């Protein structure tokens, strides 16, 4: 039986993956680059720095240094990440209630920054639901490396054999699998990513609550 659940943030707690893609599209368009939105989805689940590094390589952007590119990218993101545009994923609160009734420990492991995830949890009024919150700026290597999940496991004080991870991205699934964790591919986002490597895939939280073998 599962004793702990580790949530990714973007695309799991809230449907922000389309916002990231739009922000990157705006940035590249300003640089005269026409990018395929589906191509940009491959960078979902990475830290901001890592995704910017990969985008600069992919599109051969050499007129800016990395730090300037990241700063400009953050400004593009900020247009879409206003508090009144941010909402919990449908069914999230009910699922958290369900898990807490089962006595299951909850954690977040996100590639986003500590400031961002803490603000989001405050905004949604769910910070007290999670005993552990690990962000991308707290580990050396972001997803798809497993560092963030090793840290979350250590802070939860639970072995991987009783933990499950909810992820919406290929990079996130890869990170969790490398850490030896049971993975749930979550496909409720407007941008549905490749989670075929997950142990199980679900369309939303209602379907997830029906997995009787887990809870």
UniProtKB/TrEMBL annotation:
Membership in a protein family: Belongs to the HAD-like hydrolase superfamily. CbbY/CbbZ/Gph/YieH family.
Top-level lineage group: Bacteria
Cofactor(s) the protein needs: Mg(2+)
Lineage: Bacteria, Bacillati, Bacillota, Erysipelotrichia, Erysipelotrichales
Keyword set, alphabetical order: Carbohydrate metabolism, Hydrolase, Magnesium, Metal-binding
GO molecular function, one term: hydrolase activity
Short name of any one Pfam family annotated for the protein: HAD_2
Protein name per the record: HAD-IA family hydrolase
Signal sequence residues: none
InterPro entries listed in its UniProt record: Beta-PGM-like, HAD-like_sf, HAD-SF_hydro_IA, HAD_2, HAD_sf, PGP-like_dom2
């Amino acid at each position: 039986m599962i004793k702990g659940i580790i949530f990714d943030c973007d695309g799991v707690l809230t449907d922000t993956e389309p916002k990231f893609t739009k922000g990157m599209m705006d940035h590249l368009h300003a640089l005269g680059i026409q990018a395929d939105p589906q191509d940009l989805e491959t960078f979902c689940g990475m830290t901001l720095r890592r995704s910017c590094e990969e985008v600069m390589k992919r599109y051969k952007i050499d007129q800016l240094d990395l730090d300037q590119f990241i700063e400009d990218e953050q400004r593009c993101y900020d247009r879409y990440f206003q508090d009144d545009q941010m909402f919990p994923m449908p069914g999230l609160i009910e699922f958290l209630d369900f898990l807490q009734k089962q006595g299951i420990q909850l954690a977040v492991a996100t590639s986003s920054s500590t400031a961002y995830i803490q603000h989001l949890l405050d905004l949604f009024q769910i910070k007290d639901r999670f005993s552990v919150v690990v962000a991308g700026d707290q580990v050396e290597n972001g997803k798809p490396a497993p560092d963030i999940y090793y840290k979350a496991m250590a802070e939860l004080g639970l072995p991987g054999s009783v933990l499950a991870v909810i992820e919406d991205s290929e990079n996130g699934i890869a990170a969790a699998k490398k850490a030896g964790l049971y993975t749930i591919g979550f496909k409720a986002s407007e941008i549905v990513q490749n989670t075929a490597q997950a142990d199980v895939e679900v369309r939303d939280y209602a379907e997830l609550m029906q997995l009787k073998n887990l809870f």
